[in-house]
Amino acid sequence: MPRRWISETICDSPNFNQLSNEAEIHFYRCLTCTDDYGCFKSQPAILKGHCYPLKEVGLKDIQLRHKELEDKGIIISWQEDGRDYSVFTSFPHWNYTKRRHSRKTPIPPQEVIFELCSLHPLYWLSSGDPVPRKERKESDEPRAQPKPAVKAPDLPLDPVLAAMAQCYEDNVGVLTPIIHASIIEARDEYPSGWFEKAVAEAVAYNKRNIRYIMAILKRWQVEGIGNNGTKAKSKPVAKVLTAEEQELIDLDGFINIAADDYVEDEESSLSNSNNPEAKRLAKILAAKEAREAKEAKEQDLSF
């Protein structure tokens, strides 16, 4: 049975509040037998089986309770083919079903329908028979045909980019959209073959990440690269050590000072490495930090 509910207006109905307790109980129990149109089979024997299966209620008592509902105008009863049927007169007001099921009872006769319409002019709006799916007429207008799917054009594959991506996957790890964008940048910015050599150098230093590889390419672009794939000699001195830096650092031979932007790009990747480049940068960074700390201290003392 579809879910249904009762409006609070029945509590204010004079006819409903004049019912006896037995008739009011009969009202609630008959409600469970109705279809989506407020109709139900009302033969005493059927009501006995549906509404009072576990209560000792006689057929005579059921007839009296049903008659009381009829006298108060709560239900209207009729007979068809020797069977009794009833319909709740206020059903359209306190029942609502979004999707109606097929009828379980015959359509009420004309006189019952006229009486229901006189009580509720909008009765047919809430109790009209549903049209079976097979009997529904198709619309005269043809349905809009779905547009055929447009196949994406087959773009030519770039063998150079494919080889670079395969080299990264074989030696470093899984490709991601960000890594793929970096590989495209490397293809466009640096000579062919540099990326594979940079990957090999990164693997040799156990620095398997795209940032380290791109830093190697950037350094090679500035300093150049040897024929055998090894990095070129360090570029000439870009900055001379100050007297304070010479006192703070125990220099072991000649140290080249790299540009500040190069130091910042390389420090996170090379600071913990044991290669000579990392040691050189560590000393430079230590001198730089010491000098900045000394200058800050002098400024504080000047105030």
TrEMBL record:
- Identify the residues that the record assigns to the DnaB/C C-terminal domain, covering every copy: 167-225
Q: Which SUPFAM superfamilies match?
A: DnaD domain-like (SSF158499)
Biased composition regions of type Basic and acidic residues, renumbered to the chain: 131-144
> Signal peptide span per the entry?
none
Gene3D superfamilies membership:
DnaD domain-like
What lineage does the source organism belong to? unclassified sequences, metagenomes, organismal metagenomes
List the InterPro entries hit by this protein, alphabetically: DnaB/C_C, DnaD-like_sf
Instruction: Region Disordered: list its residue ranges.
Output: 130-152
Name of this chain's protein:
Putative DnaB domain protein
Can you name the source organism?
viral metagenome
Listed Pfam families: DnaB_2 (PF07261)
